[in-house]
Amino acid sequence: MSDVTALSNNAPTMLHAKREVILGVSIIIKTLNEEKRIAATIESALAGLPDGIGEVIIADSGSKDRTVEIASGYPVTVVQIAPPAQASCGIGPQLGFQYSTFDHVCLLDGDMILDPDFLSDALRFLTDNPDVAGVTGHVEEMQTANLEYARRVQRNAPENRVGGIDRMNGGGLYRRSAIEKAGYISDRNLHGYEEFDLGVRLRSLGGRLHRLDRRFVSHFGHTSNSYRLLIRRWNSMYLYGTGELLRASIGKPYFGRLIAELPELKLWAAVYCWWALSIVILFMAPGFVSGLAMVIGLAAAIVLLLSVKKGGLAMGLYTVVAWCFHAAAVPAGFSAADCRRKPGSKAGRSDRPNEACYPLGSRHYAGGPLAGHRL
């Protein structure tokens, strides 16, 4: 049943940018080895289409489990990246967008459950606020036993703010016209921070992003050990996202805005100052042992301070370790982005998405058609 869109025969259409655009919602579900949750995610997406008008697209980044097999049993379109393209956070949305046909685009992960009434509320909000390019709601974390997701719930993170926001972490509903004006939905080169990249491009063109004070999705994240997840994200280059984003934005009209508005940069700068101070202490101390003791004491003090603030030693220690991983990943991601090419002149959606394109590791463009195939 795959490759069948959930489209009403009475769906209205309109002409936009010299091509027919159908009024409704294209839900793009990004997947990579999501066999445990994909069925529930698809069912929630199909149930959440307002008046049943829209489509669900599974954009798979090369799953090795039964994700594609399970998805193919539903009335959805299943597309998958073609070798030698490699998985990244930016590749799934871009692939799915190329196959989408409706005038609004909703992004979901394959381990999320869409709130049944969210899209209806989001469409009404966009109708009432024509200057808003994207709207989302709260991402309810269901696996808070993992310290990473528990930390997201505790902090004043982008996922938790209501009203005007700088990015839509976790996904949400976008206007297709705003995305096409920005050039493409996501830079396939980015292993992380693709939401902020899209957000800063949309906002630099005058669009606003907004979070409603209601649930968007329930997120069933990783249940593995928190530190093992950090290592996994380093190995998968997920943590490289900040550095890759900085490299990709050099010379762009929104670069200054990105530097000024990305709050994580200030935090990583503070971590670098801490590391620099530790090195100075080692060299300036009367002896190596005493210097090492002072460095360890400084680190312990930071962990203790965070433990008091976060309500426990486990969370305090994990927060500091996570800071170090993220800070170390910035220069790694910046230098690893040497293989990228300039965005192409085409918008992210290709009128002929099956044509051979420019896969990762070879000649590729962030905004041009992406190699992939229907299943």
Please describe the biggest sheet, giving its number of strands, its sense, and whether it closes into a barrel.
11 strands, mixed
Shape, principal axes of CA atoms: globular
CATH class of the largest domain, anyone?
Answer: Alpha Beta
Broad structural category: alpha/beta
Distance between the termini: 11 Å
Q: How many separate domains?
A: 2
Computed over alpha carbons, the radius of gyration is: 22 Å
- Separate helix tally: 13
Query: How many β strands by DSSP?
Result: 11
Which architecture of the largest domain would the CATH scheme give at its second level? Alpha-Beta Complex
Q: Remind me, CATH topology of the largest domain? A: Spore Coat Polysaccharide Biosynthesis Protein SpsA, Chain A
Please name the defining characteristics of this protein:
single chain, 375 residues, alpha/beta, Spore Coat Polysaccharide Biosynthesis Protein SpsA, Chain A, 2 domains, 11-stranded mixed beta sheet, 11 strands, globular
Fold and architecture overview:
- By secondary structure, the chain is an alpha/beta fold.
- The protein has two domains: 13-223 and 343-374, Alpha-Beta Complex (Spore Coat Polysaccharide Biosynthesis Protein SpsA, Chain A); 225-340, no CATH class.
- It contains 13 helices and eleven strands.
- It is globular.
